[in-house]
Design a protein that fits this description.
Layout: E1 26-27, H1 40-54, H2 71-85, E2 94-97, H3 99-111, E3 117-121, H4 126-134, E4 138-142, E5 144-145, E6 148-149, H5 151-163, E7 168-173, H6 187-200, E8 203-207, H7 227-230, E9 236-241, E10 253-256, H8 259-266, H9 276-285, H10 289-315, E11 329-333, H11 340-349, E12 352-353, E13 355-356, E14 370-374, H12 380-398, E15 403-404, E16 407-408
Parallel strand pairs: 1-12, 3-4, 3-7, 7-8, 8-9
Antiparallel strand pairs: 2-10, 5-6, 9-10, 11-14, 13-14, 15-16
Amino acid sequence: MPFDFAPLLNPKLPPAAGKFGGFPKYNFVGGHNDGDSIPVQVLADAVSRALLREGNALATYGMQSGPQGYRPLREAVAQILERRAGMKTDPDEVLITGGSLQAMDLVNNALLEPGDTVIIEEACYGGAMTKLKKLGVDWVGVPVDGDGMRMDVLAETLDSLKAAGKRVKFIYTIPTVQNPTGTVLSLPRRHEMLKLAEKHGIAIFEDDCYCDLIFDGPYADQRPPAIRALDDSGRVVYCGSFSKSIAPALRVGYVVADWPVLSRILAQKSDGGTGAVEQLLLAEFAKDFDAHVGSLNKILKGKADALVEALEAEFGTAAEFTRPTGGIFLWVTLPAEVDTTRLAQVAAAEGVAVNPGAEWSADPESGKRRIRICFAHPSAETIKEGMARLAEICHREFGVPARGRNVERS
């Protein structure tokens, strides 16, 4: 008889994982990017040069750069942030991590304990809420409009929580191309957020993983400076990643913070160092970063346009959304009679995967009508076919949309 581990397992474990059976035919979930945009030959040449030049450094943990990560990569990150986000950065204030998810864990563990409260956007990255819940931390959502998180509501929320004796530790925000809404926090609101954080004595955790993916609208030529770039007090902890701008599978991100807090974040990083070959590759590729992102954004704009066209054709006015100006997601609102959690379950069984809005909302009830669609990985033709199939399923289950491509649905 096989050994039974069941009595030995930690009772707090999540449900058992299923075996991977491949992606569905119409896959609009996850943070996958466009496969054809990966500069395979350039990356291959870069890693070859780097390994031939510095491969002997692989004999030491940290490649003789210490636990913060490969020094040339930290220098490259600092240069990219100053050039693209207006943020002057000392490489000694940069910690290389295993993607932004590890960065988030390190920051959360350094600042949070059970019973704390964190401010988040009302529509929020689902992974961030999952991590807060696991730590026993409460969150309060603040609504987002076309200019990002609403500062009037943030001010009221902070005052209310203070009056109730709630301990708010930080504001978690994705200010530049927000996930899932795609909004960009305006410059005046960035200044106002800093003022409110100062008034209440709290920190800001700025997640800027999508900041380079702006392909349309008023910020296409120049994004607003990072919130940390506007901060002269050191209260902003900044997180970035190469997952969305280059390749998700590389699993390389970074944290930027003043040394007093970065030293406490670094003390928790006990993994022996982020992947060395990936760091060598990215440091070597840094000189090609801007050109690559420019090419990628052109591809993403074409796919965003294809998704908008498909939704307008298949759903008509039944699907409400703002045309994306950046990122890889579209946040869609459907009529009240549509429960997107059920829609996602039924659609998944028929080969169409979308994220139900309840999983991406501070208040799950407010997300029941919404879905998040990732448009970066599928081809334009797959997007067209997938939205047609999703509309058929939605109509069959909920009677919505009543028309498709100007034809009444039977």
